[in-house]
Amino acid sequence: MTSTALDVEFRPLIAPGTGDPPDEGDFAEMVRVRNTVYREVSGHDDESITPAELRPHYDPDPDQIRYVWLAVVDGEVVGRIGVDIPLAKGSRSAFWLIELLREVWGRGIGTAAYALVEDTARTHGRTVLQSWAMNPAADGPMLAPPTGFGSIPHDNITRFYLRHGYTLEQVDRSSILDLTASFDGIERLLAQAKDAASGYRVVQWHAPTPAEYREGYAWMKSRMSTDAPAAALEFDEEAWDADRVARHDAKYTAAGRTMLVTAAQHIATGELCAFNELVIGPDHSLATQQEDTLVLKEHRGHRLGTLVKCAGLMTWRELMPDSPRVLTYNAEENRPMLDINEAMGFVPVAYEGGWKKVLSA
Ligand SMILES: CC(C)(COP(=O)(O)OP(=O)(O)OC[C@H]1O[C@@H](n2cnc3c(N)ncnc32)[C@H](O)[C@@H]1OP(=O)(O)O)[C@@H](O)C(=O)NCCC(=O)NCCS
């Protein structure tokens, strides 16, 4: 049966500020829809996650208010809508997503959901709205951001953002490294990086972060919000301390996920200067996610990016011999990072757009 926007109900998953846990059944439905949408758009299951693994990311969080609604048509959950309101001091931002099963696209449900997004942002006085979406590869006209790096198809997803007043600011590349292939190249790169980084040593740990590294890791995590290429997207400067590191780590460890952090330590001062994170869920035969990687500005030019990435992967292959590949995301204009990834053997598989709209106050 066909439905129109009028038939859709947006059911809150979490009542913000109440601290009430979301209903388990609804949460599982939200994750089911999330995984299906990602499979439909990407053509693979590497982004899939279980409700237990995602659940800690929806616990009450002092760093943001998280709104989630389920889109329900005829009693069936067909999509999810999320709005995050960061609580960094002076933040003007809201981040959002609307993810609908393909079978209900083109009925006005996305547009009705978008009204909820803007209302929520306005309620919190937020004027800078940002959102990311992956576009399936397609032939035909493309749209490029003002950076001039990368492009995405001018498809229904792109039309949706443009129709709602958004500008494409950045293109991100999703890449995959085959962990079953030879590691000879990675070993060679690691040896070269070690030569170029003689004043540094590699240190590694699993979340939760040991006490001796908490302060250094917190500082590097805070620099992710200021030092990664952002084009004209806006990110609040994030304040990280030992408590926030503990909350961050618990989001992974609570559900039996493994996070390996590989860092470069400046030998003379003991300062942590670069890091890389690799994550996998309890099923070690699935894909690995590469999360943050950063070299502090003052320590760039010593091959520390290559050092932490290659050293991390060498350890990872021993720890997780059954994980078939690693996924990573990088801004298309982040040439230094892409150079490292390409040299290691990562190949691009998909592109996503970073979109922004500034509301009049
Ligand atoms: C992008 C997305 C949210 C759009 O949702 P949607 O419900 O299909 O959006 P709408 O129905 O409001 O608009 C889509 C099209 O339907 C048309 N339409 C709008 N109302 C309609 C209605 N009542 N009946 C029929 N068509 C309608 C629109 O004009 C639009 O046409 P176009 O694509 O040719 O430009 C959806 O495709 C999706 O979930 N994609 C995967 C996840 C994603 O990329 N999300 C992006 C934000 S994170």
Walk me through what this model shows.
The chain is α+β, with helices and mostly antiparallel strands and 361 residues long. It has 2 domains: 5-172, Gcn5-related N-acetyltransferase (GNAT) (Aminopeptidase), CATH 3.40.630; 176-351, Aminopeptidase, CATH 3.40.630. It is 32% helix and 30% strand. It has 9 helices and 14 strands. The chain has helices at residues 24-42, 51-54, 109-123, 156-163, 184-196, 211-227, 242-253, 304-319, 335-344, and strands at residues 8-12, 64-73, 76-86, 93-100, 128-135, 142-143, 152-153, 167-178, 200-206, 258-266, 272-280, 288-295, 325-331, 347-358. Strands 1-2-3-4-5-14-8-13-12-11-10-9 form a 12-stranded mixed beta sheet, with helices on both faces. The chain has a two-stranded antiparallel ribbon with strand order 6-7. The longest helix has 19 residues, at 24-42. The radius of gyration is 21 Å and the shape is globular. The two termini are 41 Å apart. The model has no long low-confidence stretch (mean pLDDT 94). Residues 4-5, 37, 41, 97-100, 105-111, 131, 133, 156-157, 159-160 line the site of coenzyme A.
Most strands sheet: 12 strands, mixed
Query: What coarse outline follows from CA principal-axis ratios?
Result: globular
Read across the widest sheet, the strand sequence of neighbours is 1-2-3-4-5-14-8-13-12-11-10-9
CATH architecture field of the largest domain: 3-Layer(aba) Sandwich
N to C succession of SSEs: EHHEEEHEEEHEHEHHEEEHEHE
Helix content: 25-40%
Each distinct ligand: coenzyme A
Straight-line N-to-C gap: 41 Å
